[in-house]
Specification:
The structure is a homotrimer of 159-residue chains. Chain A has a 5-stranded mixed beta sheet, with helices on one face. Chain A has 159 residues and is an alpha+beta fold. The first copy, chain A, starts with a helix and ends in an 8-residue tail after the last strand. Chain A has one domain: RutC-like (60s Ribosomal Protein L30, Chain: A). In chain A, a hairpin with a 2-residue loop joins strand 3 and strand 4. In chain A, helix 2 packs parallel to helix 3. Chains A and B meet through strand 1 of A and strand 5, helix 3 and strand 6 of B.
């Protein structure tokens, strides 16, 4: 099953890869590495999850925000790779959680992204992760996610 | 026009590449990737922009701080690559903004760096970007910037 | 002297590489690059340094926390590379310091990690570094460290 088929099975329609919000680009490939710019929880051009975890948003909302950032990141990876089966490995997920004083739920909330990568890419979705709290996020976004992936030369490349 | 010529046209004299402030080095090359340590807004050995955006500094000062960090980063890239025309691509700019409660101007302020990379390197300056707020920065620096670039084998390398 | 011999000389017994705390893996290799997930100051399965620098912890405790994160990162690198002599270069150390209002000791505290990398790996330990303050850290960890290294093809690889 290709990652695209798995996304369809999960009922996820990839959006158009969200454009950058300023003077930069949403992804770059160097050698076999693709990296994305910081992905925010955009849906249909609107910020779907704004505010701080532990203040304005519950953890289940944070989980959905992280999942939405991951969907947007996958859209960027598809724009970069053409076909998601060319992704040999999700190598790194950087998860930044907009949160208030004393917040400790970063790992659970970021699993909204990690679970999706594992679900869509299987063994190739197993990634390293960074989890950090941020006191003030651009555009008041609940989550920002940056993703690095290794891309292969062909659709049947086995890494 | 080379990046050095473009810098001259912009009236920018690259400083000596700022040294690291502790037990590390300012840049490393691995394969074709060069990465810099966190670059701060140093000018002539002094911190030119200290304090927090939204509290101590206006956005136009933050823009200049980000631009100055980018100038220092370009000095590091030149130290690494010898000639800036060997830079095939600015691949990633990580922008950390020292800011107070409720600050949302990260994208505009970090354009001070992005605009310069685009201006000096043209198509090769088009980068991915990460924008995050930081509540307490080392040395009270207004901005910290980390830059990744792809470097080629020769001056006329076309990537 | 191998890095393992140098560790023994320093009286450091590498722990079992700490497992990830959620739906991800502790390290990934892509090409010649190994990157770790965020390493926390775990010792014998317990968080050895919790709280914020400048509030709950002194700088000398922060230095030890950063050193402990570095030991855990070296355990991950050994898990990835088999033998530490296959590490050609520590290329990047990202140091995140959990800290309270007005804290400025990030560089000194993170030297707890940098000094160890330099001590264990010698010239190959000379790394770039990022130093940032974090207001709320996962699991209340005092320090989080992410490490990138270049790994060679053989034990006597000279980079």
């Amino acid at each position: 099953m290709t990652p695209e088929q798995r996304l369809a099975e999960l009922g996820i329609a990839l959006p158009a890869a969200p454009p950058a919000v300023a003077a930069y680009v949403p992804w770059v490939q160097t050698g076999n590495l693709v990296m994305t710019s910081g992905q925010l929880p955009w849906r249909d051009g609107a910020m779907a999850y704004a505010g701080k975890l532990g203040v304005d948003l519950r953890d289940d909302e944070g989980y959905q925000a992280a999942r939405l950032c991951a969907i947007n990141a996958i859209a960027q990876l598809k724009a970069a790779a053409g076909e998601l089966s060319r992704i040999r490995r999700i190598v790194r997920v950087e998860g930044y959680v907009h949160c208030g004083p004393g917040y400790r739920g970063h790992p659970q909330v970021l699993n909204g992204a990690s679970d999706l990568f594992n679900d869509v890419f299987g063994e190739r979705g197993r990634h390293t992760r960074l989890a950090l709290g941020i006191h003030e996020m651009p555009l008041d976004a609940a989550i920002e996610l940056s993703v690095w992936a290794e891309v292969g030369d062909g659709a049947n490349d086995q890494g």
